[in-house]
Amino acid sequence: MSECFCPHCKNPIYDDDALLCLYCGNSLRRNVTFLGRFKYTKPVYIAGLVIGIVILSFIFFILKH
Ligand SMILES: [Zn+2]
Fold first, then answer.
1. Which has more confidence, 65 or 64?
2. How far is the C-alpha of 27 from the C-alpha of 29, rounded, in Å?
């Protein structure tokens, strides 16, 4: 889904879970840490969105009936 670049050879890495670069074999620890933070932050926004949609649909359900 998300594309990142190897900090050593600048080749694109398409595998989010890859720990080593497919091209030069160097560690992608920097990118993994960044993606790890991104993965920890994102569900909070998704949960907020889902809760908002549920509340909105509940309000619409009440208004319809
Ligand atoms: Zn590389």
1. 64
2. 5
pLDDT digits (tens, 9 = 90+) for 9-60: 999 988 877 888 888 988 876 555 555 555 556 677 888 999 999 999 999 9
Q: How far apart are CA 1 and CA 34, in angstroms?
A: 15
CA of 6 to the centre of ligand 1 (A): 5
Other C-beta atoms lying within 10 Å of the C-beta of residue 41: 9
64 CA distance to ligand 1 centroid (A)?
57
Q: pTM for the full model?
A: 0.37
